[in-house]
Amino acid sequence: MNVNCPLPVNGVPGIITLGHGSGGLMTHQLLQTEVFDLLQNDWLDQQHDGATFSLNGKVAFSTDSYVVSPLFFPGGNIGDLAINGTVNDLAMCGAMARYLSLSFIIEEGLELSLFREVLKHIKAAAQAAGVAIVTGDTKVVERGKGDQLFINTSGIGHIHPRAAIHHNRIVPGDVVIVSGEIAAHGMAIMSVRKGLEFETEVCSDTRPLHEMVGKLLDCFGEQVKFLRDPTRGGLASVLNEMTEATKLGVMMNEVSLPLNEQVAAACEMLGLDPLYVANEGIMVAVVSASVAPSVLGALRGMKGGEQAAIIGTVTKEHAGKVVLESRIGGHRVVNFLPGEQLPRIC
């Protein structure tokens, strides 16, 4: 008796289908022809369930997931966002990222060419940051049960020998510095969604911050007491988390906040407070008052830090609260964001 076994169904050409997440031939083809070929390195080439490598000394570990719509936006995309985001999370611990894992959750129907383009940006961002993608995972979910593409990255890296970053080292009189203009990332995405047009394009600030942090730690070491990247919830959320943890207050000055005119205009048009808008390429640093001017000068001399500014001081007054002095001299408490100001963008 002759038995004819059907050949595997390869789905719609150029489109991600559920078969690509089956663990069978289509999954193998997707990984081999797209992921492994493009991102190849000695660790990933082993195509194992994990990665083995050697690390000496104190290390930091971080993980994050990325969801954004649209996948591509002025100044960035979900691919470089995922790499830079985890590199930056490690940098805020005083660590230089070395190895990353990379996992995808893909919605059925995503164009293969779009996925390939994201991979290219992932590769470029990883090379720029000097990190190796050593392991990962790919899943496909049914149409309507995802939002095109979700990415998770986890990372590990060596902690700088002079890093002593912890909120419990903050004392009254310390100075709060932000490394660049706020709210650019969130408004770049919102301007695309809402069809807003300006004289100049509003672009995301997504970039890796590890080199900036490394240089600060080289120069100022333990005088850099606290670092955080103000992503979801923006600058206001970071400062509120800090004051809640330290039981100290922060006094900010609205005049000192670095804010691009186009970004400010976009926020005003949409009725959004830039203090709560997400960022992806700036950091908040709390440093000793004695080195604050030098830290500011160092940041302004670095790429991506040209617009750095001292925005406030740590105080014993109004413990656990962030207070903003307005341009006209009034004061208001800047609380945690009570709900969802923006659709998910990171």
Automatic annotation (TrEMBL):
CDD domains: HypE. This is Hydrogenase expression/formation protein HypE. Pfam families: AIRS, AIRS_C. GO terms for biological process: protein maturation. Coiled coil: none annotated. It comes from Chitinophaga silvisoli. Residues 49-158 form the PurM-like N-terminal domain. Belongs to the HypE family. PANTHER family: CARBAMOYL DEHYDRATASE HYPE, HYDROGENASE ISOENZYMES FORMATION PROTEIN HYPE. Residues 172-324 form the PurM-like C-terminal domain. SUPFAM superfamilies: PurM C-terminal domain-like, PurM N-terminal domain-like.
